[in-house]
Prior knowledge:
The protein contains 3 helices and 8 strands. By secondary structure, the chain is an alpha/beta fold. The strands form 2 sheets. Strands 1-4-3-2 form a 4-stranded mixed beta sheet, with helices on one face. A 4-stranded mixed beta sheet has the order 5-8-7-6, with helices on one face.
Amino acid sequence: MDLTIHTSFLPHDDPDASLVFYRDVLGFEVRNDVGQGRMRWITVGPVDRPDTSILLAPPAVDPGISEDERRTIAEMMAKGTYGWILLATRDLDVTFDKVRAQGAEIVQDPTEQPYGIRDCAFRDPAGNLIRVQETR
């Protein structure tokens, strides 16, 4: 098999705030913005990687999801435990400083982990955990 990761999903509860964060703070290009109001599906990704994307989508819109499940998803998003993604950069300090300067909620400063990875963590406007590790 020849498989790659094409698109990963993260929920949003404020499409405009998510768009600003992923486009202006992280520097991703906007590839698609479909829908209206809070019901928007926004595809973003690194400028130099057109085959890799993140789909920012409204949570719990599947008609097969029960009201209890919708409530659980909303509670998990509010706690920041529903969605997360791991990104990579060659210069963790520059990336971290830029994200911090834009006012993102910092979860972890750049740290050398005991398992050999140097990384940091912050949250996007929807509460999703964004971990960034430094490539070496």
